[in-house]
Amino acid sequence: MSTMASTMSAASAGSAVRPIAREEVVFPPTGPRAFLSYVRSMRGLAILAVVAVHVADALNFGHSTAFSERAIYALFGNASVLFVFVSGFLFQHLSGRFRYSTYVTKRLLTIVLPYLVISLPVLLHQYWRHDDVFRGTEHLNPWLVAARALLTGSHMRIPFWYVPMIVPLYVAAPLLLKIDRRRTWYGVIVPLLVMAMLLHRSRGHRLVWQSTLYFLPAYLTGMWASAYRERILSFIGRYRWVVGGGAFTLWLYQLTTHRYGGPIFSAAPFSTEAGIVDLDLLTKLIASLLALELLRRYDMVVRQWFQRLAETSFGIFFVHGPVLAVLQGLMRRRVPGPAHYGVGLWLLGTVGVISISMGSIRLVQRLLGERSRYVIGC
């Protein structure tokens, strides 16, 4: 994502106009696209929300009987939707000089390679202890066990499930650009969104294909928002309170009526043991559009708040999982599992994980310079 940020900083160039049929749209411009500081802020907000919900998950807020803890989990739960949304937005925005080989190479070097580098010590530790993915696998080839773990992210489900989920979208980039070039095809978002709301998220992130299909409409919605950003953001700006009220109503309905926070996690695709319609996906997509409009409206005020978070967003993504695991292990030793940890500890934990992660990133960047992106993604 740091590569994306550097590309966005280039100056805007005019795009050539050619005669087109009525049902066609203009292809993405051939020149670099303008840097959008409010989209960078959105990236920072998204990674902050991801860390916040992972801390809440570690404190078991999703199964808490305390209203405040469940409210926090419902608010930040499924924050990955924001992360995927802004990824789709940036993909479309920066697609002017798209070259598939270059695109895939950059994704391999700055996302897949850091994933492998950080996964290596995690897998070695689990193999040495015969724990987690290596538990009960004495008669299996350890290389096959490790390969399966890497293909599913099961060696550290929070947050490594994300990489196997997003890679198919990178592979499908040419197909996604075909949708963008024939923009009436963006209508496919509606049936895909309905399908995803019935499909649900995979419990324990076990099924990668289910996770990819669930987040596909979020990625496409981000692309659509980029393609029509002026029209969409102007509309949301005019009806900001209506849009915000809709998102708030959906959030409150889930919290008070369904008694669950965040998305529905199902044991199997389309199973209904945890609910039928996952309203949280729709809620978070509306919230993503609203957040984007607000960040643009107050760009001059908030851009500095999220700058460093945005610049290191993928680094925080890769580093915060191990940081949270260590802190969680220390807390379990010293605090023997109370029923409610409280909002204060959640705030402290979120700030702590973000601070330690950013400190670790700064250290690696000083040691490795620009090569740090191949180790921690930024």
Q: What is the terminal separation in angstroms?
A: 7 Å
The total beta strand count reads 2
Number of helices: 18
Q: Percent of residues in beta strands? A: under 5%
- The secondary structure category is mainly alpha
Oligomeric state as shown: single chain
In what order do the strands lie side by side in the largest sheet? Answer: 1-2
Average pLDDT, rounded to a whole number, is 84
What would you say about this model in short?
This protein is mainly α and 378 residues long. Helix content is 69%, strand content 1%. Strands 1-2 form a two-stranded parallel sheet.
Can you walk through the features of this model?
The protein is mainly alpha-helical and 378 residues long. It has one domain. 69% of the residues lie in helices and 1% in strands. The protein has a two-stranded parallel ribbon. Helix 5 packs antiparallel against helix 8, helix 8 crosses helix 11 and helix 13 runs antiparallel to helix 14. The longest helix has 30 residues. The radius of gyration is 21 Å and the shape is globular. The N and C termini lie close together (7 Å). The N terminus is likely disordered.
Features:
1% strand, 378 residues, mainly alpha, disordered N terminus, two-stranded parallel sheet, 18 helices
Topology:
Layout: H1 2-8, H2 37-58, H3 67-76, H4 80-93, H5 100-129, H6 142-152, H7 157-160, H8 162-171, H9 173-181, H10 189-199, E1 201-202, H11 208-227, H12 229-238, H13 240-258, E2 265-266, H14 279-297, H15 299-311, H16 313-334, H17 343-368, H18 373-376
Parallel strand pairs: 1-2
